[in-house]
Amino acid sequence: MTGPVSKFLEQNFRHFNARETLDTAKSWCQFLEDGGKVLVSLAGAMSTAELGVSLARMIREDKVHAISCTGANLEEDVFNLVARDEYHMVPNYRDLSPDDEYDLLQKGFNRVTDTCIPETVMRHVEHNFIAVCAENEKSGTRMLPAEIYFELFRQGVLEPHFQIPREDSWLLAAWEKDIPVYTPGFEDSTLGNIFAARVIENKLSTHDSIKSGTAQMQELVNWYLKTDAESKIGFFQIGGGIAGDFAICAVPLIIQDLQKDIRLWSWFAQISDSTTSYGGYSGAVPNEKITWCKLSKECPRFMINSDASIVAPLIFGYVLGD
């Protein structure tokens, strides 16, 4: 069954990036119908762009089966969940002067394009996040960064502070559906910085309560091997950078470094605002991945040069039958 969003795309998205968008959505539907599983990678500021409104539904309706994301996307979904009412919007962000930016800083805001996140929410989440890390140290437990938030969801300590419908948080959906969330380069985030600071201050005694990037890669490899035994696996990449690069490298690692016989990624699509550039990974065309033992020459491949905050919800809406 298709709704008005799907019908609109069918009627209007006929050429250029619009056609590529519709072709991606149709192909994703077919891939799922054929029993495929899909990993989504999130770069950029997708959580602050509130992609969770549609991505959470994709997770809950079994259209997405794993996530690889930047540390910023991980924490900013939580920030949005518990402090959305305190955010400050600046629709004229293109016109801000350095003095305007400094004024926002003095008022306790950190700007992400048109959205200013209050420093207070970061400190509130920090208190709970570091408490779990401290308990992990005592018990000798190591967690993925996302699993620390999952533990906070399990404890219920954040729920009294929810300011958006729980249905709109993609991380909460991932916890509810028990899908893995990998966060390479976690240190490149507010909570990653805070975690390192607490170790430096000896308020935490070790970095080992959070799994390192290579430990996360091992978990991703194990997930891929287990999933590949049952289903083909596809890759939907939003933006470029470490979230996508980390996850897609699991396949050549398994084939070339572990010498195991598995399928390559069986379906691939990317949304990027970067065009092919000199040495720029985010602008690399999908065909380049064939040379790196990531995609086969037969793999369905789609490259959409557009704004993911516009295109991704439309694709998700089509896949969901909206």
Features:
single chain, 322 residues, alpha/beta, Deoxyhypusine Synthase, six-stranded parallel beta sheet, three-stranded antiparallel beta sheet, 12% strand, globular
Describe the structure in your own words:
The protein has a single domain (4-319), classed as Deoxyhypusine Synthase (3-Layer(aba) Sandwich), CATH 3.40.910. The strands form two sheets. A six-stranded parallel sheet has the order 6-2-1-7-8-9, sandwiched between helices. Strands 3-5-4 form a three-stranded antiparallel sheet. The protein contains 13 helices and nine strands. The model has no long low-confidence stretch (mean pLDDT 95). With 322 residues, it is of the alpha/beta class.
Provide a quick synopsis of the model.
This protein has helices at residues 4-12, 16-33, 52-60, 71-83, 98-106, 119-139, 145-155, 170-177, 190-200, 213-228, 241-248, 250-257, 308-319, and strands spanning 37-42, 66-69, 88-89, 109-112, 115-118, 181-182, 233-238, 267-272, 301-305. By secondary structure, it is α/β, with parallel strands linked by helices.
